[in-house]
Amino acid sequence: MRTRLALALALLTTVAACAGSHSPTSATTSTIVDVHGQFSGTYKIASCVDNGGFSGFCAAAGFDTGTTLPISLSLTQSGSTVTGTITLGSLNGTFQGTVAGGTLTGTATMTTPPNDDFTLNLSLANWSTTLTGDALSGGFSLVFSAPSLSGNATLTANISQLSR
Question: Domains (ranges, CATH) in the chain?
Fold first, then answer.
């Protein structure tokens, strides 16, 4: 009986000591990287896949794998929210994104080039870049579609260099 009582007392003492040894956890703060500014550089086409009514679009547009094209980005930032303009060759768009840690993710609504009696929709998707020093690295996709056609064309690109 004494052995059980001693064992129970030892167990209670251990539990009380463990319960009292917890220190409050401090809130973790994430540093938001400053990505505002003017960036310019190049991106390289990793792939261009077309289907449906867009079959042959990638080749006709000159979107061959390995082709390098110019890119520029003008960004403003308020906390983790990033907005601005993006230029991919002769295509312009409005960028909307978010910074979490050192990663900038976002999308862009692109202005379509004028076409006679044809509506072409362009959207920049899956933008994901990391800031190292004054350079962004990563990639994005550019999706071409049209209300009057089935299918689409999706260009996937890797940023070769994009610096401010």
Answer: 37-163 (2.40.128)
- Global confidence as pTM: 0.78
**Would strands 121-132 and 103-110 be described as parallel, antiparallel, or unpaired?**
antiparallel
Instruction: List the chain pLDDT tens, one digit each, 164 residues.
Output: 433 333 333 333 333 344 444 444 444 556 889 999 999 999 999 999 999 999 999 999 999 999 999 999 999 999 999 999 999 988 999 999 999 989 999 999 998 877 777 888 999 999 999 999 999 999 999 999 999 999 999 999 999 999 99
